Amino acid sequence: MTKAGPLVTPENLDTFDASTSDLVYDKSKSSPLRIAKDILAGTSGGIAQVLVGQPFDTTKVRLQTSKSGTTLLDVVRSLVKNEGPLAFYKGTLTPLVGVGVCVSVQFGVNEAMKRFFHNKNHGLPLSLPQYYVCGMTGGLVNSFLSSPIEHVRIRLQTQKSTGASREFKGPIDCIKKLVKQRSLMRGLPVMMLRAGHGLGCYFLVYEVMIQHELKKKGILRSDLPAWKLCSFGAIAGTVLWISIYPLDVIKSVIQTDKLHNPVFKNSMIKVAKNLYIKEGAGAFFKGFVPTLLRASPANAATFVTFEFALRLMD
After folding, report:
1. What share of the chain is helix, strand, coil (3-state, %, to 5)?
2. Alpha carbon separation from 13 to 9, 131, 207, 273, 296 (Å, rounded)
């Protein structure tokens, strides 16, 4: 049973801040140990995210990159019939390692920026724009890692051939071939835009809900029950994808373009025009349903794992 925190009173209400309200976390001070704990907790959250969300993500990518009118059920049936149930976890090794690192960077940078603004504000709570900037910074920094990782994953997820006829024999072979074609970082510009804005919204929504709950209940962050952390994470993940989904479709098209003589290269405008001319506005929302179905459980798992990993380490 957790120890109850101090009640919020009229005297301390204005300075009660969710990002620094629990002495167990000691988030107002930067130190190598504090940073290491943030990164390790973020890694744990990233691994949980992949394990829960990969089947949904594979389905989403197949829908986004389909050349004809394919439905969610068509994709699921085709995967099970032609490639087996394990096909939903195609390309999992790369994100299992990579997303763990990426999420650790997202959370680590976000926490560091929160401490920066907390000190800049002389201990006063962060404003909404500051929360957004914290998440956006994490997204921009993380793009340089997540762009090549997602490129490898999406190549493996969309590969339908098996055995000796496969173009990519696995993650290492895929990386080698992408490097040889100087294409590993393809999709970086759209990834920076997607991750910057998306994670700005993501962390803003989550932290605002945390802060509201702590002020309302007058408790410490470590007193929040798992189900509430899951709920906040699920809502934040849903808002994230609603805010950036068309950009994600464009990224998927860019990263599945031909390796030799690509049609679009890194041009977001070319992809957007091509999609609109061929399929209309609906093209920018292909795969939206499995993405939203994935968003809730995957991000609930991410945040609750992150928060409980911190509690275990502190």
Report:
1. 75, 0, 25
2. 6, 19, 16, 50, 31
Residue indicated by tokens 């190549």: 155
State how far Cα 127 lies from the chain centre: 23
Amino acid residing at 239: V
Task: Name the 3-class secondary structure at 267.
Answer: coil
Give, for 48, the enclosing helix (H) or strand (E).
Answer: helix 32-64
How many of the other CB atoms lie within 10 Å of CB of 300?
A: 24
User: What's the confidence (pLDDT) of residue 2?
Assistant: 39
Asked if residue 133 lies in contact with residue 183, where contact means CB atoms within 8 angstroms, the answer is no
Helix (H) or strand (E) holding 138: helix 128-157
> Collapsing DSSP states into helix, strand and coil, what is residue 258?
coil
Q: Tell me the C-alpha distance between 299 and 57, whole Å.
A: 13
**pLDDT > 60? residue 156:** yes
Q: What is the DSSP letter of 165?
A: G
CA–CA separation, 61 and 90 (whole Å)? 11
Place of tokens 């930067």: 30
Predicted confidence at residue 192, as pLDDT, reads 97
User: Which of these, 191, 194, 178, 160, lies nearest to 258 by C-alpha position?
Assistant: 178
- The reported pLDDT for the residue numbered 283 is 93
DSSP H or E run through 209: helix 188-217
The 10 Å Cβ neighbour count of residue 268 is 19
- 3-class DSSP assignment, residue 260: coil
pLDDT digit string, tens, across residues 212-231 = 999 999 999 989 999 999 99
Cβ(151)–Cβ(176) under 8 Å?
no
Cβ neighbours around 82 below 10 Å, total: 10
**Residue type at 124 in one-letter notation:** L
More confident residue, 302 or 169: 302
User: 101 to each of 38, 47, 49, 258, how far by Cα in Å?
Assistant: 12, 9, 12, 28
Q: Indicate if the pLDDT at residue 95 is higher than 80.
A: no
